[in-house]
Amino acid sequence: MNWRRWAAIGLTGAAAIAAISLFPRTDNDARPRNQIAKLSVPKPAEEQQLKQNMLRRDVTATERLYRLDAKGHLRTLASDFAQAPSGKLPNSARELQKDHKQFQAIFWYDAENRQEKQFRRADFRPDPAVKEQLDTYVSYARKALNKAKSYESPVFPAKQPKYFVSAEPAKTGKKGVIAIMDAGILSRVEEHQHKNLRLIPYPKEGKFKVESVHADTLRDITVKTGHDNEKASHYYENEIVVTFDKKPAPQEMRRIEKDISGSMTRKLNHTYIFRSETMDMKQLKRYFQKKWRPKYIEPHYLYLTNEFGGGFWDGGLFNNDASTGMQEDTPVIPNDLLFSEYQWNLPVTETNRGWKLSKGSNDVIVGIVDTGVDLKHPDLQGRLLKGYNVINPDKAPTDDVGHGTHVAGIISANVNNGEGIAGMMWGGKILPVKALDKSGSGTTYSVAQGIIWATDHGAKVINMSLGNYADAQFLHEAIKYAYNHDVVLIAATGNDNTERPGYPAAYPEVLSVSATDFNLKKASFSNYGDYIDVMAPGESIASTYPDNQYAALSGTSMASPHVAALAALIRSINPDLKNTEVMDIIRKNVIDLGDAGRDKYYGYGQIDVYAALQAAGGGNAPLQFWPQSIQRKMDRVIDQNK
Question: Which pTM was predicted?
Answer without folding.
Answer: 0.75
